[in-house]
Amino acid sequence: MTNITNQLDDFAITLPISQAARTTAQQFANQQPNSQKAEQVKLNTLAVSVVNDYLQMMEVPTNLTASDSWNPIMQLCADVADLEVSSVGRLECRPLKLHEQVCSVPPETWEERVGYVIVEVDETYTEAKLLGFVKKVATETLPLNQLQPIEALIDRLEQLKTSPVDALANLSQWFVGQFETGWQTVDALWNSLEARPAYAFRSPVTSPDTSFNQQETVTRRAKLIDLGIKIVDQPVMLIVEIAPEANGQTSIRLQLHSTGNQIYLPTGVQLKVLDTSKAVFLEAQARSADNYLQLQFRGELQEEFSVQVAFDDMSITENFVI
Q1: What percent of the chain has pLDDT over 70?
Q2: Can you give the residue ranges of every domain in the chain?
Q3: Which residues contact 274 (CB under 8 A, 6 or more apart)?
Q4: Entry pTM
Q5: Closest CA relative to residue 159, chosen from 85, 50, 256
Q6: pLDDT digits over 81-107, tens only?
Q7: Nearest alpha carbon to residue 174 among 222, 206, 112
Q8: CA angle, residues 131, 132, 136, in degrees to nearest 5
Q9: Are 45 and 21 in contact (CB under 8 A)?
Q10: What is the C-alpha to C-alpha distance for residues 104 and 97, in angstroms, rounded to an integer?
Q11: What's the CA gap between 121 and 98, in Å, rounded?
Q12: In this predicted structure, what is the pLDDT of residue 16?
């Protein structure tokens, strides 16, 4: 039988296991009720520690003590090896013993994870290899030939980072013709995409709405939202329409459309409006035959909000100020 781990050596990263990590792992193990659980917790702790060290080297901020794997109750009740990556989510760091060909991934780790790193721990607990990375797992065993190079982990974390808070699109400036990079007219953006039957797109975009339609003061811009890691080659189009009201407020309408050859949005894709505390105050979710989503609200001058497009554990956030 071919040793798959030998084939992974071309892109595996070998790191030392620090004395501090070994000490912590042994302390956690000593708190367990039996030797089998102690070994499980020890390996999980070492795997998480090594991945944490790697991310620190790559200048990726983490919060080790906030992870379930550092919680004594979770150590006892579950088989978890998660690492909290700041502003991103939980990364699962699954340990593997030397020469094992398949990695165990317990069902309790299948949800609320941004990805999985497989860590081979040597028999002396002094060295470990980061064998590779996968984005999603839905089975209790993961064959090692499914792993991507560990560099894919860094790309994944970069994609999941929330948009910087200072990257605000100023909607008041839109009224005077000043637009941030990336926001185009609907026609210009649509013409840049691969053509598809016009009725599938234009019907919902020009749907009747007495509060917006036929107003010369309406300003409309569009931007592609690329969830390509989940929806390959099928970005969605976010359209923002704004119109001033007599009371000094601004009416805002958001639409999310499918693009390419897909008439319908992917089932489950979500459109959300978040307030300054990132709490959701408006949201919509695509069903099996929705070709667009729409949300509408009003805001005051200088009010800030965010628009989030989410699909599974992937999300893209755009920030605005009125």
Answers
A1: 84
A2: 4-159, 168-321
A3: 280, 281, 305, 306, 307, 308, 317
A4: 0.53
A5: 85
A6: 999 998 788 899 999 998 888 899 999
A7: 222
A8: 140
A9: yes
A10: 11
A11: 6
A12: 97
Structure tokens at 208: 């009747």
Confidence bin at 51 (pLDDT 50/70/90) = very high
User: Six-digit token pair at 152?
Assistant: 């894919």
- DSSP string covering 216-273, please? TT-EEEEEEE--TTTSTT--EEEEEEEEE-TTS-EEEEEEEE--TT-SSPPTT-EEEE
Question: SS3 of 144, please?
Answer: helix
294 Cα distance to chain centroid: 22
Helical residues (DSSP H) of the chain, grouped into ranges? 4-8, 19-30, 35-57, 72-77, 151-160, 171-174, 186-191, 198-205
199-226 pLDDT, tens digit each: 344 334 443 343 444 455 789 999 888 7
Token duo for residue 151: 């560099």
